[in-house]
Amino acid sequence: MTATRDLKIVTIGAGYVGLVTGVCFSDFGYAVSCVDKDAGKIEQLKKGKIPIFEVGLEALVLRNTRAKRLSFTTDLADVASGADVVFIGVGTPPAEDGSADLQYVMAAVEELAPLLSGFTVIAIKSTVPVGTGDKVEALIRKTAPNADFAVVSNPEFLREGAAIADFKNPDRVIIGTTDERARDVMARLYRPFSALGPPTVFTDRRTSELLKYAANAYLATKISFINEIADLCEAVGANVTDVAFGMGLDERIGSKYLAPGPGYGGSCFPKDTMALLDIAKKAGAHARIVEQVVNVNEARKQAMAEKVIKLCGGSVDGLTVAVLGLAFKPDTDDVRDTPAFPIIQALQKAGAKIRAYDPEAMEESEAHLSDVAYCTDAYDCARGADVIVLATEWKRFRDLDFNHLSEIMSTKRFADLRNVYTPQAVRDHGFEYVSIGRS
């Protein structure tokens, strides 16, 4: 079996965005080549081994490589010629000042430019500041004056842990271009998706670039908002779970991202909120709400550590803390800006000894944390502990055996930073228990 659709696709970058993009398009029947400079990563992918943990991704890679629709290479020159769409899906990490670092985007474009042949759409999937498409277009025109191309903004809206479902069943497809030929190509490319119902929104390139930042900043705002409401609930004796549920029933608000916790993390919200602040500053505009969202989120981690210390009678010096969950959210091994790390470091600074367990993120964590004992499962982690801190709501942490925990812990204390459990149910087992925004 080979490609069943007539567009040839190349994705530059076999990280989270580029890999998911390429694999999913191949599963819709397109011929896709994924390019990455990391030779080790490419060799692993050729063997069907996935460098990131993402539910369902390995099966799709195997299926489409066997069907000869999906290939991997380190040599862009081998696959760029004759491509109809080249996706730029490389990283845009935060610089020291919070701005998005575009060095990998521009390096990819500079390498691509002289290889273009025939009309090619360069679609930027990476999250980039407003005006990046203009810079990419200028660089290509300088490097390859005779190239026939159009630069399009096509932001991704993928949630880690649910990226395959999000890509195949998107809420919307955003395409930023005023070039009619590019519009036609992108409309053809996304036709299989349109048949499933999601709207395709065509706009100009700068609007599309800003839209991605605005969407992520708004979701981050909902998280910081409900976290502050949770603090207020604790102060006045209200229940944040019921508050959030009642709010979410209002269709103008919606229930998503109203779960209180230790703050947002991951590859998107922290860097995108900071990048949006940088964009606003450079444009001479204000983004005061987003600025406060960032401040609230930063303060949140220390507040969670203090909550654990308070549960332990005001001191964790010499105590053993069992941390369940290191990834910033379940179903991923991503530890970028995870709230668990600053909480652990604050507890260590206060004198605590840390044991930790995460189903997928322990190997990634070792490069960022020191003096942590990594465990084989939740019960191994809890053995001899003075307090459990539930930092990431993996499914396997949702049905812990509290009778068994009572037998193996030194002291029965439980800090539920994700509101997984009903307070009274845990207390009925003799545990001292705290959660977020509930008494």
Which fold name corresponds to the CATH topology of the largest domain? Rossmann fold
Shape: elongated
Helix segment count? 18
Residues in β-strands, percent: 5-15%
Spatial strand arrangement across the major sheet: 3-2-1-4-5-6
CATH class of the largest domain: Alpha Beta
Q: CATH homologous superfamily of the largest domain?
A: NAD(P)-binding Rossmann-like Domain
What class would the helix/strand composition place it in?
A: alpha/beta
- Mean model confidence by pLDDT: 95
The major β-sheet equals: 6 strands, parallel
Tell me the radius of gyration. Answer: 24 Å
Total number of domains: 2
Distance between the termini: 59 Å
Q: How many DSSP-defined strands?
A: 14
The second-level CATH architecture of the largest domain is 3-Layer(aba) Sandwich
Percentage of residues assigned to helices: 40-55%
Unreliable sequence segments:
none
Task: Give an overview in words.
The chain has 439 residues and is of the alpha/beta class. The chain folds into two domains: 8-203, Rossmann fold (3-Layer(aba) Sandwich), CATH 3.40.50.720; 204-439, Rossmann fold (3-Layer(aba) Sandwich), CATH 3.40.50. The chain is built from 18 helices and 14 strands. It has helices spanning 16-27, 39-46, 57-66, 77-80, 103-112, 132-143, 163-168, 180-189, 191-194, 205-236, 240-248, 269-283, 288-311, 340-349, 362-365, 378-382, 402-408, 423-427, and strands at 8-12, 31-35, 70-73, 85-88, 120-124, 149-153, 173-176, 200-203, 320-324, 353-357, 372-374, 387-390, 413-416, 432-434. The strands form three sheets. It has a six-stranded parallel sheet, with helices on both faces. The protein has a six-stranded parallel sheet with strand order 11-10-9-12-13-14. The protein has a two-stranded parallel ribbon with strand order 7-8. Helix 18 (423-427) links the parallel strand 13 and strand 14 (432-434). Helix 1 (16-27) packs across helix 3 (57-66), helix 10 crosses helix 12 and helix 10 (205-236) runs parallel beside helix 13 (288-311). It is elongated. The model has no long low-confidence stretch (mean pLDDT 95).
